[in-house]
Design a protein that fits this description.
It contains eight helices and ten strands. By secondary structure, the protein is of the alpha+beta class. The radius of gyration is 25 Å and the shape is elongated.
C-alpha cells in the first residue's frame, strides 16, 4: 500500500493484513468487521516514546551503575545498546612514576587521579564503565559531552598543576556497543571499544585522540573552534585488517 502523509480517512477491513500507514493529524479511522464472528483490531503507534527509559540511557547513569551492578543484567545476556561514545584515559609514564615515588606514595596520587576523573565524567553526564590498571574507560550518550570531559581532564592534568604531577592521554570513538555482565559489572564490548583502546598509540601526554566519527559531530567541531584547538590528521593502520583510517589529535596543554 502506498503511504500518504495527507491521508485523513482510513477504512480498515478485517481481511486486510498488517500495514503501516502514514496519516495526517487527527484522522478518522473506520473499522469494519465483514464476518459474523467478533474480531479484534489493534492500532499501534510505532513512533518511539521519548519518555521511555532505554538501557543505553540507564547504563550511562552513574548512580545506577553504583547501586545496581549485579542486579541490572543477567550473566548470559548480551544486549545491543546502540551508539555510545567511549572514552579511554591512560597515565603517561606511570611505571617511572611508581619507581621514583614508591608504591605507597604513587598509589595515593593515582587514587586521587581516579577520583578527579570520576568527577569529570559524571559532571558531563557520562558513566565509568571500569578501571583497567591505572586507566579508565567511560561511556557517554553524547559525543560532545565526552569531548568536554576529556578537555577538562587535560586542562587539570596539564603538567603545571601543583595539585598533581600526573599526565594523561585520552582517546574517543563513537559507535555501536554491546553490554554484558562481566565480573558482576556492566561492561561494554565490540569494535567501538577495541578501536578506542587501539588509537591510544597516537596520543601523548596532554593530547586527545579521536576518530572520524567523533570529528564529524557538529557539536564537537563547535567545541574545538571555541577552544581554539587545532586538529592534526593522522593515518592510522588497523593492523588486524591492514586498513588505513584517518584519526585526529589535539594538544590541549
Amino acid at each position: 500500500m502506498e503511504e500518504k502523509a495527507d491521508l485523513s480517512e482510513v477504512l480498515w477491513i478485517d481481511e486486510l493484513s498488517a500495514q503501516n500507514i502514514k496519516v495526517s493529524n487527527f484522522p478518522t479511522v473506520t473499522l469494519r468487521n465483514t464476518s459474523k464472528e467478533p474480531r479484534m483490531f489493534i492500532l499501534e503507534d510505532n513512533a518511539m516514546d521519548q519518555d521511555t527509559l532505554r538501557p543505553a540511557d540507564l547504563f550511562s547513569f552513574q548512580n545506577f551503575r553504583d547501586l545496581f551492578t549485579t542486579e541490572s543484567l543477567a550473566s548470559d545476556i548480551k544486549l545491543e545498546i546502540g551508539v555510545q561514545t567511549i572514552l579511554f584515559t591512560d597515565l603517561v609514564g606511570s611505571t617511572k612514576f611508581y619507581e621514583q615515588e614508591g608504591d605507597a606514595a604513587a598509589f595515593t596520587e593515582v587514587r586521587k587521579h581516579f577520583q578527579k576523573t570520576y568527577e569529570g565524567v559524571q559532571k558531563h553526564d557520562g558513566a565509568i564503565v571500569k578501571t583497567i590498571g591505572d586507566a579508565v574507560m567511560a561511556s557517554f550518550s553524547k559525543t560532545s559531552d565526552a569531548l568536554e570531559a576529556a578537555i577538562e581532564m587535560q586542562e587539570y592534568f596539564n603538567g603545571s598543576n601543583p595539585d598533581t604531577r600526573l599526565r594523561l592521554r585520552i582517546t574517543l570513538h563513537t559507535g555501536p556497543c554491546l553490554a554484558v555482565n562481566f565480573d558482576n559489572n556492566i561492561d561494554y564490548f565490540g569494535n567501538t571499544v577495541n578501536l578506542t583502546a587501539k588509537i591510544q598509540s597516537i596520543a601523548e601526554a596532554g593530547q586527545i585522540g579521536f576518530t572520524q566519527k567523533v570529528f564529524q559531530d557538529k557539536e564537537v567541531v563547535e567545541i574545538l573552534q571555541k577552544k581554539n584547538l587545532l586538529c592534526q590528521e593522522i593515518d592510522f593502520e588497523q593492523k588486524w585488517s591492514k586498513k588505513i583510517i584517518p584519526v585526529y589529535r589535539v594538544d590541549v596543554s
